[in-house]
Structures are given as C-alpha cells and as structure tokens.
Design a protein that fits this description.
This protein has helices spanning 53-71, 75-87, 94-99, and strands at 8-11, 16-19, 21-23, 26-28, 32-38, 43-50. The chain has 2 domains: 1-71, no CATH class; 73-102, no CATH class. A 4-stranded mixed sheet has the order 1-2-6-5, with no helix packed on it. It has a two-stranded antiparallel ribbon with strand order 3-4. The chain contains 3 helices and 6 strands. The longest helix is centred in the middle third of the chain and has 19 residues, at 53-71.
Length: 102
C-alpha cells in the first residue's frame, strides 16, 4: 500500500502548488521542476516534477518489482486499492482500510 502523504506544497508562498511524484510507494519531489501554465489565465497553475534519469530508473524498477503481485490481484481489488488510496486516502484511516482487507 502506498504511503499516505500530501502530494502538494505551496511553492514559495505564491499559492502555486508544488507537486510530488509517487515512486515505489514514496511521494517525492523531482530532481528539477517546471511550471505548468493554465492556458486560460496564462498564470502558473503548479510546479511539476521533472524526473532525472535516476528517478526514472527507480520508477521502472519499482514497477517491475510490483508487476507479478499486481498481475495476480483480481481487477476489482486493484480498483478498490486505487479508490481507497487516491480518493478516500485523505479521509480514511489505516484502521478503516484493514476492515476492507486492503
């Protein structure tokens, strides 16, 4: 199960979200960042991580390590994990996840 952690942080007090990326169950900032611009307003919408080659290798190795476990998991269980971690994660506690056997 991924570690529940905030994926954003206000960048330099400007109110622009600083996003993190998930690699191997760990939320982290990239080696570099760039500003994603809102095309409607022409303003910075967020600071987005730009992965280094080492971070790309880490992500690929984590995906390969998880491949057989995820492949053996029924589709509904994979879907429930995504819902619980990504959608309900901020409002659910670890104890509640145990009730769902996730």
């Amino acid at each position: 199960m991924t570690q529940a952690a905030p994926r954003t942080e206000a960048a330099a007090g400007r109110g622009v979200a600083r996003l993190k990326m998930l690699i191997g169950g760990e939320w982290r900032y990239g080696a570099a960042e760039f500003e994603a611009v809102d095309p409607y307003r022409g303003e910075a919408a967020a600071r987005v991580p730009e992965s280094s080659l080492d971070e790309l290798d880490d992500a690929l190795n984590a995906a390969l390590a998880a491949k057989s476990k995820v492949a053996a998991m029924p589709g509904y269980e994979r879907a429930m994990r995504v819902v619980c971690e990504e959608v309900l994660g901020p409002i659910m506690t670890e104890e509640r996840l145990v009730l769902f056997n996730l």
